[in-house]
Amino acid sequence: MPVDPNLAGLLQLIVAAGRPPVSESSPAEARTGLRTLMVDFRDPSLLAPVESVTATTVAGSIPARVYRPDVDDPVPTIVYFHG
User: Fold this and answer.
1) Residue 27 backbone phi and psi in degrees, to 5
2) To 5 degrees, how large is the angle CA 71–CA 72–CA 73?
């Protein structure tokens, strides 16, 4: 099955950043690659500062954290599920 074209571009960015392909990475290397894309490639002056971090649970027992930016306007929401 071919890789989705949008995902293929993301995987190519990881390799272009000097990181090993995800399929050949350890979990630690994959985390470093993700950080490169999500943090290191971004201009810090364009990011909203984090106002608060709240520990909570989802579905009664799954630990979660909610990061809220220090902005008044509506902002996009990203949800990460692991496993």
Assistant:
1) -55, -40
2) 100
